[in-house]
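Need residues for this backbone.
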């Protein structure tokens, strides 16, 4: 096959959790399963690549088996690591660390959460995963099952937007996002 890979990013469904989950390994809620099944109805892909976190990978495996598609896990597609903020309700963070939270939303590159992954690391691992998908999947339709933060960062890269714009990019649970990734977009 020739031509670029046709990549669609799919955010995992609802987990019932209301905080920065990051790399905590939450299962999908029943609502999350329903959202994902509805999101992919009628979709046509030949390959699925998924984050290893179960809120992505368990659904990706089910879909691949049901449709007889190739599926692989790529650890680089995991969500951003929020450090000490992982699992803390956003309301609690707003009350206790409101200034730090505001700085993070305004400029996540300069103001990562305490103990959190740097945005250079996050971008590097996501870009590496996407470069490999683009390189090895020419002419194929690829579904990448990942996370809200990952989708926002990748969209910022492709759309040449500041990472400070991430908070304003709407990425609902189980939403699909076509991504024109051509490789080497670092």
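Answer:
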């Amino acid at each position: 096959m020739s031509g670029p890979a046709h990549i669609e990013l799919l955010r995992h469904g609802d987990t019932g959790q209301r905080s920065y989950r990051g790399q905590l390994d939450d299962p999908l809620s029943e609502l999350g399963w329903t959202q994902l099944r509805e999101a992919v109805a009628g979709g046509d892909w030949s390959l699925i690549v998924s984050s290893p976190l179960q809120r992505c990978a368990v659904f990706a495996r089910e879909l691949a088996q049901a449709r007889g598609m190739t599926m692989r896990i790529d650890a680089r597609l995991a969500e951003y690591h929020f450090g000490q903020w992982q699992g803390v309700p956003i309301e609690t963070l707003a009350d206790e660390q409101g200034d730090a939270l505001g700085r993070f939303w305004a400029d996540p590159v300069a103001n990562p959460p305490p103990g959190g992954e740097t945005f250079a690391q996050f971008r590097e691992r996501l870009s590496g995963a996407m470069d490999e998908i683009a390189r090895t999947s020419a002419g194929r339709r690829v579904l990448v099952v990942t996370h809200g933060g990952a989708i926002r960062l990748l969209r910022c890269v492709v759309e040449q937007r500041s990472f400070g714009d991430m908070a304003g990019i709407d990425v609902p649970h189980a939403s699909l996002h076509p991504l024109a990734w051509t490789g080497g977009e670092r």
